[in-house]
Amino acid sequence: MLTHSPKTVDELFLITNKIKGSYLFHAGGTDLVPYLKSSSDIPNNIIFLNRVTSISEITVHADSLSIGSMVTLDQLANNPLINKNCSTLADAARLIASPQIRCKGTVGGNILVDNRCHFYNQSPFNRGSHGECFKAGGSSCQLVPSTKSSDHPTCRARSVSDLVPTLLILNASLVVRSADLERKISVRDFFKDDGITRNTLKVEEIVVSIEIPDQECSFVKYRKLRIRNAIDFPALGVAVGIKKSRDLSVAITGVNTAPLFHSYQLSDFSDFEQMVAHACSEGKKRIKPLKQDAFPPAYKKLMVDQFIRSMISEY
Amino acid sequence: MSDDSTTIGKSVPLIHSLDKVTGRAKFTDDLQLSSPLIVKIFRSVHPSANIKAIDIQKVEELAGVRAVLLGRDIPNTFGVLPISKDEPALAIDRVRYVGEGVVAIACESEEIATKALSLIKVDYEITTPCFSPEKALLATDTPIHPELKKGSNLHKQVLQNFGDIDRGFSEADEVVEEKFDFPSINHAFTEPHATQVAIDTRGEITVYSATQVPHYLHRAISDVLEIPMHKIRVVKPHLGGGFGGKSDPFPHEIIAAKLAMITGRNTKIVFSREEVFFCHHGRHPSKISMKIGVSREKGITALDGNMLIDGGAYGSFGVVTTYYNGVLLQGPIKVPNYRFECNRVYTNKPMCGAMRGHGGVNPRYASEVLIDMACDRLKIDPCEFRLNNFLQPNSLTTNEFRITSMGIEQNLKQAMTRSDWSNKYRKLPFGKGIGVACGFFISGSALPIHWNQMPQSTVRLTIDYDGGVSLYSGASDIGQGSDTMLAQVAAEVLGLPIDMIKVISADTRTCPIDYGSYSSRVTFMAGNASKNAAIRMRKILVHAACQLLEISEPNYQTPTKSDDFYRQGDQKPDFESSYLGANPDYRDGFKFRGELITAPNGKSVPYMDVVRKALDFTGALQTKGVYISPKMGGNFKGSGAGLSPAYSTTVFITEVTIEPQTGFIKVDKVTCAHDCGKALNPLSVEGQLEGSIHMGLGQALMEEVIHHKGAVQNPSFLDYKIPSPFEMPEVDLIYPDSDESEGPFGGKEVGEGALAPFIPSIANAIYDAVGVRVNNLPITPDKILTAIKEGGPRC
Fold it and tell me: What is the residue-averaged pLDDT of chain B?
């Protein structure tokens, strides 16, 4: 396995053009390295992103905030600009993993973190004890055994980013670059309802930065369900946003294949309470929890309701 | 102990701590043997299958593969208990759990070994696995161990009955009965299993291994590989936690030794975390039905328990676990009439064995929750109930355990005061609760696993021209600090600073036999042996000092209570033998204080002058001390199980907050009062108690080994949840001295006993907070919320 450490984005794409064989980008490595240790599919090349300084900056613009994808989660949690302009994102960052992991893990890495399934996230040996799953290139699904094998089998591995719900509420966009193209895509359009492909990022692309527009929301909160108050991925993560107009938006992670986002206009309801009740009901309806991680599915449904209400009660 | 003690009773940092925190300490994986072959094990992916064929042709052709080992190459089975030697080093005809070793290879590098594993092909005939312990009790034509000819998967059944159980229940004012369910728990030690084997030109081997018991490993390798013990040396390097999970001899240790002998090369094997979970040997999952009768006046009138424990594929310590599930309920409250039936079954899962609080943890949860329920129904304060019914010092339990010291009554009173119990119990607002539970545990097992008349522990001391004391002990410091304890005891007797005691331990070539670190035995037994050896050494030095000072020698007293030192018809010790009894007195009128030894007449002589005088005409000074348990126990089958020269007790008063909307649990504060006799090293005592609280918290609230079709589904520290620092509560520790007359300087157990009662104290506090009980661990928020929604209290 070869390693590469480009210093600029252009240099990075020169390397990818020259490489023969497979490659993977290494951001913070906190998810990638355990994966490589347990994987039988090791790439020929690893490209480290940590020396590309241009994607490690936080910048305040006139009408937006730009966060480099290689900003670490620890920087995000503690940066004065973030805490002043977007404290809710810093709060969400502080709920991720542990201090050590936050010092290595990056914003881009957390947004792109691989979906998880306790049948897939095992060693090849352990997966072999009950048959390789679709995501591992096999022909069965232990999580939903009735899933049919096909060219595009459904994988129900769950999305687990702690930052994405808040970014969905904040209507953030991802700035994505390939060798000859830069594009911008809303986080709300980025994710795919598929535990294998997960999002619309192409193999030759990297996320350069995250842009957060000036806020319409006057109130944004994120709450996370987990058995321990450190280390764990979200068993359920719920963010709520309330605009000055008192319109409501809700984003949910940790359960479905793709993060969920839905907004509700106050004008469609008789009053605020009815809108909240509807949002809770919709949240419970939309999440499709399966029996994995630390909590039973029925409990997660109850907690969606509870979390939405408890956060809004602070409004 | 004199008032001007040098180290005993003082907080002494563990002697290896600086080496460990600076990275200098060498653990097994760190040792640099010359070009070791890397050993890996090909493991079964099936929980139950017959092995039809193993194709190793491609492996043998791969460059860099030096040896391939199959089960038939090591036909002798083994097990830590002589009565259940049911485990092969590698599966021979059949596999019995996912993760069982089938082929072992020794290769020139990690990469080659990984490649070689992928080339092994095994043809299995898959058979129906048995995962359910209830089904394992039923008759079957295809038992997991057909060689035992039992016709079912029952491994061990224990039935004990004392007193009149029916009369006991009839005398009760309240009878409570519940069913409980406990999952599989892993030790989650930091250092994975690791073994390296060095082989010399004569074919003799030195096995460096992360083991709690070098002596048992020494025996097992000798027995299984049929090599004389003198050709094998077992050494335990620094060790990163055991908690019972490294007390068996393991297949990989035998495999690494065998491969070294086949190849003539050094070998090395280090487990991944996943392999640790597949290897397991953790706490038995268990289903317990228990019934307790409680009388306002008489306390507990009867206890009837039925335990079904899931042993997994092999025996391990299971026979002992089966007994401990019942017998350890005999304290700290007197139980006049009691009956229990415990069945251990084989299932097609990784085997269970000993884990901190061995066999006593799950039934303790059941009994302490039931006592709380009964007190609630009878409207009795559960602390006051316990205070009125504790076993008394110098008494016998119903099953004839000999109780010596018993400090629990004072400890509970202190814990009640410090926690402000009387102002909180049943008086806190909804969502806040306080609960109490108590525990009882052995301080070493009085009977050895391998029946023989050897002392349970022997310690040797030498002093040569440099004046430093070398202390040799087979006891295994697994991070609990036994080396420090041994040094403290010897330093105290010889009046020397602790850094003059150089401990050489856990090396079967240089150290005398000790039965190792399990059943909370080391401080009591090896500590006493160290004290015996040091007193013998002190006598030599006193003799030399008398010569230098030209005074007569002191009159030594014969040991007091010498009749107690008989063991099952053994010889009576005397002062000239190596055994002076448990916690022997050594008052000789002399004062040993570092550089100076002072005679009763006030004259002093330098320590080094005394040492060199003592060396005249003899050379290196050598003494030996031993520990032998006194004779004890009843005259009935199984009377030896749970016999101990002393018992520790623990009190927990725990405070919790429950969020009623979510069921979230926060353990706010723990008041823990433990009777460890004299705290020889308070720093170490506090570390053990805090560790027990952390470990108990995990079992109470989150830990569970999850299996899917026999495969462990959470074999990592991400998915097997042990508490993070955020979950640790505020801790108030109480450990006043109690008078343990037989423990070295009055010390007894502290490493295990505190774990068990902490868990039910949380459960009882939850009941106080929100009025619900959860009888299946772990107590997770969803279970609490469900119980609240289902209408709250059932008692």
Answer: 95
For residue A287, is pLDDT > 70? Answer: yes
For Cα atoms A136, A140, A143, give the angle at the middle one, nearest 5 degrees: 90
List, for residues B195-247, the tens digit of each pLDDT value: 999 999 999 999 999 999 999 999 999 999 999 999 999 999 999 999 999 99
| pLDDT tens figures, B457-488 | 999 999 999 999 999 999 999 999 999 999 99
Domain presence at residue B6:
no
CATH (one of 1.10.3720.10, 2.40.128.50, 3.30.465.10, 2.40.128.20) for A55-213: 3.30.465.10
With the C-alpha atoms ordered B695, B439, B211, B81, is the resulting torsion angle positive or negative? negative
B708–A119 C-beta distance less than 8 A: yes
pTM of the model: 0.96
pLDDT for B794 beyond 60? no
Q: What per-residue confidence (pLDDT) applies to B448?
A: 87
Both B64 and B208 in one domain: the answer is yes
Answer yes or no: do A228 and B719 touch at CB < 8 A. Answer: no
The minimal CB distance from B711 to the residues A126, A299, A303 is found for A126
pLDDT exceeds cutoff 90 at B559: no
Please list every residue in chain B whose beta carbon sits closer than 8 Å to the beta carbon of residue A121. 719
Cβ–Cβ gap B46/A126 under 8 Å: no
Choosing among 3.40.50.880, 2.40.50.100, 3.30.230.70, 3.30.390.50, the CATH entry for A217-312 is 3.30.390.50
Among A40, A228, A296, select the one facing B726 at the smallest CB separation: A228
| B528 shares a domain with B508 | yes
Q: Are strands A58-60 and B286-295 parallel, antiparallel or unpaired?
A: unpaired
Distance CA A30, CA A13 (A): 23
- pLDDT tens digits, A90-143: 999 999 999 999 999 999 999 999 999 999 999 989 988 888 899 988 888 989
Output b/e per residue, B618-653; b: 16+ Cβ within 10 A.
eeebbbbbbbbbbebbbeeebbbbbbbbbbbbbbbb
In 3D space, the residue among B779, B787, B752 whose CA is nearest the CA of residue B763 turns out to be B779
Interface test with A, best of B120, B705, B708 (most A CBs within 10 A): B708
More confident call, B526 vs A153? B526
| Average confidence (pLDDT) over B73-84 | 96
Nearest CB partner across the interface for A130, out of B662, B708, B723:
B708
> Could you tell me whether strands A23-26 and A45-48 are parallel, antiparallel, or unpaired per DSSP bridges?
parallel
CATH code at B275? 3.90.1170.50
Contact criterion met (CB < 8 Å) for B785 and A228: no
Selected for mutation to probe chain A from B724, B789, B790 (highest A CB count within 10 Å) is B724
Q: Of A118, A230, A302, which has the smallest distance from its Cβ to B724's Cβ?
A: A230
What residue in A sits closest to B717 (Cα-Cα)? A231
Task: Give me the helices (H) in B655-712, please.
Answer: 682-701
* Same-domain check for residues B781 and B662: yes
Question: Could you tell me the residue ranges of all domains in chain A?
Answer: 55-213, 217-312
Phi/psi at B208 (5° precision): -95, 120
Q: Is A126 in contact with B274 (Cβ distance < 8 A)? A: yes
Name the closest residue on chain A to residue B712, using Cα atoms.
Answer: A126
Question: Range of B46's domain?
Answer: 31-127+190-241+246-279
Tell me the C-alpha distance between A114 and B411, whole Å: 52
CB atoms B711 and A130 under 8 Å? yes
SS3 state of residue B419: helix
| Per-residue model confidence (pLDDT) at position B556 | 79
A44: its two tokens: 């020929």
